[in-house]
Specification:
Layout (H helix, E strand, L loop, with lengths): L2 H16 L6 H6 L1 H5 L3 H9 L4 E6 L5 E6 L2 H9 L4 H10 L5 E5 L5 H10 L4 E5 L3 H11 L5 E4 L2 E2 L5 E6 L17 H4 L5 E8 L1 H8 L5 E4 L5 H6 L2 H5 L4 E6 L10 H10 L2 E7 L2 E4 L9 E7 L17
Helix pairs in contact: 1-6
Amino acid sequence: MTTTDRTAWRAALDRRARTAGLRGFAQRLRHPVRTSYPSTRALRRRRHRGEGRLSTTRTFWGQEMTIALPEEVSVALHRRGFVDYDLTAFLLSHLRPGATVFDVGAHIGYYTVLAAALTGRGGTVLAFEPTPSTLTVLRRNAGRFPQARVVPAAVWSRRDELVLHDHGLGYSAYNSAFEARLPDVVRARIPSEPFTAATVVLDDYVRAEGVVPDFVKIDAESAEAHVLAGMRELLAGPRPVVSLEVGDLDVAGAPPSRTLVDTLTAAGYAPWELRDGTPVPHRPRDHYAYQNLLFAPAGHRLAPHQEAGPRCTT
């Protein structure tokens, strides 16, 4: 895609983002169904009852996606056409055509679809996701792009079979090998069905498949430490840029986010945080609220996209 395309997509993203604040009141009046229906309260009730249905929507750049209402990522896509402004804006500016992207914890495939659109037919996008019900939606979305492939497995620190917990369609974003990253009062009300999934180790996968990522997005619902333990060779050798979800909710068996940050800095990576989609150096702290941090090899600055080369810029 061209720089002009990226500029147009960023403008579209910014317009959609403005609908979330007071400045978007007029936009909400013009688009009442997309931005306010069903109500948040009604969606919450439907999630607790385990109700859900597949639907379609369009992303902020116009791509059709299958979603699973009333699941919250799907609601965000239905209302705004994007998820997580900062990480989305970063990828728009930094992910190059021809790059190879690993989407670890792909869920229904928003980042899979975005990465496939940005890397083009010369790129490669691998979407790792273990939940059978979520895989149905992910496969529909990834199937729209020949450069995207779904790997039906959980990324872990060793090859094994892993017991995970499926919290139903409405709470599928919280499916995990650990307890759901939700407040206790919510966790007690939602379904939780165990299922078994095969695991894959990223270092093993890279050796076996001969594919090396330029960018790795990790959102593994408290399993991030295991994902990092299984990619030591990647961190030491090819050294991709890494996006890592952090946030301390005192989940039993999961280390604090600072431990994850220290793991990557010990591997020679520098942490960055996103402000309005722009990476700035990050100072590690002891406790983290939810956010996505970026990690790039120490000494390399995360620079904006240039129309050359296959890598995510560093």
